[in-house]
Amino acid sequence: MRLVVVGAGYVGLVTGTGLSDLGHEVLVIDREPSKVEQLAAGNIPIYEPGLGDLVRRNKRNGRLTFATEIPQEWAAADAFFIAVGTPASPDGAADTSAVFDAASAIAKIALRSAIVVVKSTVPVGTCDAVQAHIDGGTRQGVELEVVSNPEFLKEGDAVNDFFRPERIVVGARSEGARRALRALYAPLQLSGERLVITDPRSSELIKYAANTMLAMRVSFMNELSRLCHATGADIHAVRLGVGSDSRIGKKFLYSGPGYGGSCFPKDVQALLHLGKVHGIPMRLAEATHQANEEQGDFLAHLVERMLTGTSGGSLAGKTVAFWGLAFKPETDDVRDAPSVRLARHLAMRGARVVGHDPEAGPNFLRALSDVTAARPGSIVTVDKDYDAVEGADALVLLTEWRSYRAPNFAEVKKRLATPQAGQSPVVFDARNIWRPSEVLAAGLRYQGIGVPSTGSTVATPPASSRALS
Ligand SMILES: NC(=O)c1ccc[n+]([C@@H]2O[C@H](COP(=O)([O-])OP(=O)(O)OC[C@H]3O[C@@H](n4cnc5c(N)ncnc54)[C@H](O)[C@@H]3O)[C@@H](O)[C@H]2O)c1
Description:
Number of strands: 14
Bound molecules: nicotinamide-adenine-dinucleotide
CATH topology of the largest domain: Rossmann fold
């Protein structure tokens, strides 16, 4: 088949490349000329494991090409995929303007009937609105059917997710469109069909429901972690005890610095907004969002108190090392990442942040360019992990990349600044991945999230740190 994918981001590039690897001829469009130039040269503008080799292989084969707009030769494509961004508007609603722009471009160029597959995450009713939008703009005799096919890939494992999907959701009105998508995805389901076929509105809601449900688990565990700080319970034990119930399951039960990334924050907000529009308050989504905000505040206060003590001294002159800047391992994405929020908080209060990340350093600095413009030198990145720790007053682990999992704590201790008499330097494990005993053995203090602190006393903020704001 000849397929056009609009949007060369995490979703569009993986989808287009994956489809070309299945033997289709694919054109990927992006309105950013710099991205297209890089891709045409065989370079990948994002970090996604395994994607680069796949892009180059299919490009060499002539099955995968890139452009900034759909050329006339592709006017008779069999299907057009829309994989553009749908960021949050200030009121929380998903901004679908790029989806409609892409739909207009497709309607204008299409020379024969085809399907338009919306992979972007869009509010319920958007596919119907896009259908109405397209119907008014196509050539006579050309029928484009809009189909919802939300994407469930996980950044960092996206290539694997494309070729081994847990489920493929298709929301289509006609049998013809359902048949077309079933045929397109058949090679990914040789070991058993994983299609969930429904109408476009249900399909659109499935995506928001899935992401909000996952975010809800994270927020609940984060709230419990704060309760652990207040009561002396240990979140590790709580997680094990709760997750051993097969009705609950062990996944997505980790407390940490709060969820971030390009999907959970905006999708929870978009579901909340959708509920408001329809007069059905999404109270759990609201609480999920609120708990996430509070977890960010909690983390900031915990780190601040660790550095200044209970007396609430100043952060001026303090240096904090960050290990991990991406919102999760194996990606360079820092959209809504906890690292960005914490760095902003600390830098605005006079501290200096020195960050290290295997991939996300440049995006981190870009996301905080307003802070570094106001306070030059307040946020920097380094290429080597231990260089971030050199002379710092504390180390905060924010993303559990493999390379941070078993650090040399003696080296960390050697590199950290020596605090005032009687105190040991402190490491803050916001992902709860280190063994406190190993940290302690190196002469450091340990602070995790929802686990008892070890070493000399580290001040613990009240369970609701908002009281301090
Ligand atoms: N990133 C994820 O992990 C993920 C997972 C599942 C679903 N989604 C959803 O998929 C969609 C895309 O997400 P993403 O992370 O790939 O976004 P992204 O921001 O990485 O990429 C979007 C790309 O679309 C391009 N673009 C925007 N408007 C365009 C237009 N009119 N014509 C051509 N190109 C255009 C942009 O330049 C950008 O390169 C969003 O709705 C998102 O919620 C994302």
